[in-house]
Design a protein that fits this description.
Blueprint lengths: L1 H6 L3 E2 L11 H12 L12 H15 L9 E4 L1 H13 L5 E6 L5 H7 L3 E6 L9 H7 L4 E7 L11 H11 L5 E5 L19 H4 L2 E6 H4 L8 E4 L2 H14 L5 H13 L6 H16 L5 E2 L7 E5 L8 H12 L1 E2 L1 E2 L12 E5 L4 H11 L3
Parallel strand pairs: 1-11, 3-4, 3-5, 5-6, 6-7
Antiparallel strand pairs: 2-8, 7-8, 9-10, 10-13, 12-13
Helix pairs in contact: 2-11, 4-10, 12-14
Bound molecules: 4'-deoxy-4'-aminopyridoxal-5'-phosphate (PMP) and glutamine.
4'-deoxy-4'-aminopyridoxal-5'-phosphate (PMP) binds next to helix 4.
Cofactor: pyridoxal 5'-phosphate
GO cellular component, one term: cytoplasm
Keywords: Aminotransferase, Pyridoxal phosphate, Transferase
Length: 363
């Protein structure tokens, strides 16, 4: 869709990335680190000092300790953390339960390692989970449950009841969990991010994945990390070592220095909540129906009142005829289920959102 947006000179609200710049101070820190000669391999699991800061962050936000030495690994974005965690967990014929609409990297990796994807399809408008139905997906072969809160693309967040059900489902089993928490700081209306790090019964079986791309508006840097108990992290690192060996050094030093200066991520909720509210307000007079957005930088809309087209046709029409690009949500379902909804990314300058809304009001 980004390629199509460029081709049609459309406002691009499709792929999730900010169109505003990184803090110049952070860019300067990268330059400084390079000038100071931090240009050779970092240690395999990442800079110990950066891992130390991540450990402190997790302790202070979730009262949960991960050892910098043995339980934290810096990765080439959350994407590599997810890939490696799945690769470490899945062998042929293992089953993985995925809550859809889901970020598109989970299912292909499960399949690449011979696993079977068992999707649980959530539906608009509320994307509720019926845990009795989830329980029916669990078999003796279930090896992995992948969750993502706040969830891309539907903006849903896990609540205490979901956590309780996850505990019940996994109790006395060998099921592992990947908890993709890249949007941990993009959560709105004073709600709390319930990291699985908070729950010892779940933490012991969970890989948590996170991304500095989301924290500091630098998705192109591809630096993230994985948290897991030592026993799981040992397996993770066996693969990490031969997949990337280590992650780019000056970025790690710069992120460490930046984290030491000012943890700006604590203001992200407010920053993006304002953008969410602005985008929703701008679209209020439109014919689209705005769905709930509790977190992430994605706003989902239903266009059922406007057209009978399938969502790919609708998204194509929007980019070619109205010059606004979005993502059709069927691409986030293994079975390409189409609920006639579209995803718009609001991690954009106010002018970009205003321009997009102006065009969308014509639909
Ligand atoms: N998980 C989710 C849910 C995402 O939306 C993204 C980013 N687009 C990632 C993982 C990947 O993060 P990174 O860019 O750090 O690889
Ligand atoms: N996560 C971002 C999105 O959902 C972009 C990542 C990608 O394009 N692979 O749009």
């Amino acid at each position: 869709m980004t390629a199509l947006a460029n081709k049609h000179h459309a406002v691009n609200l499709s792929q999730g990335f900010p169109d505003f710049d990184v803090d110049p101070e952070l860019v300067e820190l990268v330059n400084q680190q390079m000038r100071q000669g931090h240009n050779q391999y970092a240690p395999m699991p990442g800079l110990l000092s950066l891992r130390g800061l991540i450990s402190e962050k997790t302790q202070s936000l979730h009262q949960s300790y991960y050892s910098p030495e043995t339980e934290i690994t810096i990765t080439a974005g959350a994407t590599q953390a997810i890939y490696t965690a799945i690769a470490a967990s899945i062998k042929p014929n293992d089953e993985a339960i995925i809550f859809e609409p889901a970020y598109d990297s989970y299912a292909p990796v499960v399949k690449a390692f011979g696993g079977l994807v068992k999707p649980y399809e959530m539906a608009p408008p509320f994307y509720d989970i019926d845990w009795n139905m989830v329980k029916r997906l669990v078999t003796a072969n279930t090896k992995l449950i992948i969750i993502n809160s706040p969830q891309n693309p539907c903006g849903r967040i896990l609540k205490e009841e979901d956590i309780k059900q996850l505990k019940i489902i996994t109790e006395n089993t060998d099921i592992l969990i990947i908890s993709d928490e890249v949007y941990e700081h993009l959560i709105y209306d004073k709600q709390t991010h319930l990291s699985l790090a908070r729950y010892p019964e779940l933490k012991m079986r969970t890989f948590i994945t996170a991304s500095f791309g989301k924290l500091f508006h630098c998705t192109g840097w591809k630096v993230g990390y994985c948290l897991a108990p030592e026993m799981l992290m040992k397996e993770f690192r066996k693969l990490h070592q031969f997949m990337v060996f280590s992650v780019n050094t000056p970025m790690q030093f710069a992120i460490e220095a930046y984290l030491n200066n000012k943890p700006t991520y604590l203001e992200l909720n407010e920053f993006f909540q304002r953008k969410r509210n602005l985008f929703r307000k701008l679209l209020e007079p439109s014919r689209f129906t705005l769905l709930r957005c509790e977190g992430t930088y994605f706003q989902n809309v239903s266009y059922e009142r406007i057209a009978a087209d399938n969502d790919v046709e609708m998204a194509t029409k929007l980019v070619t005829d109205y010059k606004v690009a979005c993502i059709p949500n069927s691409s986030f379902y293994t079975r390409n289920t189409d609920f006639r909804t579209l995803r718009f990314c609001f991690a954009k300058k106010d002018e970009t959102l205003e321009k997009a809304a102006e065009l969308l009001l014509k639909v």
